[in-house]
Amino acid sequence: MNINIVAGGPVEHLPALTEFTKDSMWIGVDKGVAILLNNGIQPDYAFGDFDSVTEQEWNLIRSKVKNIRTFKPEKDEPDMELAINWALAQNAEKIRIFGGTGGRLDHFLGNLQLIIRPLLKDISCDIEIIDRQNIIFAKGPGRHQIEKNENKKFISFIPFSSDIEGLTLIGFKYPLKDRHIPLTSTLCISNELIKDYGTFSFTKGILLVVRSND
User: Fold this and answer.
1) Which of 95, 115, 130, 160 has the fewest CB atoms found within 10 Å of its own CB?
2) How far is CA 66 from CA 18, 19, 61, 63, 120, in A?
3) For 95, how many CA atoms within 13 A lie in the half-sphere containing its CB?
4) Within a 13 Å sphere around the CA of 56, how many CA atoms are in the beta-carbon half?
């Protein structure tokens, strides 16, 4: 089962949400609940303090959503973190975050921190941040396969928490072999696959993988 989480980021950054409905549960976070309803998607759960919704939106949410989990605005965890923690506890195969880019940079950077949580806790679940132009996810050491996607043909590998050791790229326009990538390096920005599949592998660190289109 996939769990799709919609936050309240600018709607112009959203992809077509209806393309992600198969085998998926939908969660709205704060204003993201209203965004789901406006897109004709019924939220299974709603999370948040709902301080960013209008009175009209709140009345709509209360009338349409059965499972609403409300929190005080003064709390240690942001609404998205509470939703991610809940989703991870459901043993989801994949968690997708929509509405998590654009707008406030602090929210976006916080969401980037959240997608590495399964790696740090040894939980078998990928978390992706998806918007109209990008798919972002994180990987730990090992060998990983990646499939060609003409709609997101540019692929970047960005060191996240520390230097990357032993990075090898096979099947890419710009291959690498057993390369050390410092934390501040931009060497691996904007690569492309030259085959239907490619592989990337490394022995130490955490990589952010960003798949983009212009």
Assistant:
1) 160
2) 21, 24, 9, 8, 33
3) 31
4) 1
Q: Looking at the domain 2-132, which fold is it?
A: Rossmann fold (3.40.50)
**What's the token pair of residue 73?**
């605005």
**78-89: b (≥16 Cβ within 10 Å) or e:** bbbbbbbebbbe
Domain ranges of the chain: 2-132, 139-212
pLDDT in tens, 161-206: 899 999 999 999 999 999 999 999 999 999 999 999 999 999 999 9
60 and 52 Cβ atoms separated by less than 8 Å = no
Q: What is the DSSP string of 98-117?
A: ES-SSS-HHHHHHHHHHHTH
Asked whether the beta carbons of 143 and 201 are under 8 A apart, the reply is yes
Helix, strand, coil % in the chain, rounded to nearest 5: 25, 35, 40
What pTM does this model have? 0.94
Side chain identity at residue 198, one-letter code: G
Determine contact, residues 35/11, Cβ cutoff 8 Å. Answer: yes
- What tokens does 57 get? 């939106």
State mean pLDDT over 43-66.
94
Question: Which fold, 139-212?
Answer: Rossmann fold (3.40.50)
**Which H or E run includes 87?**
helix 79-89
**Looking at residue 84, what is its pLDDT?**
95
Fill in the DSSP letter of residue 91.
T
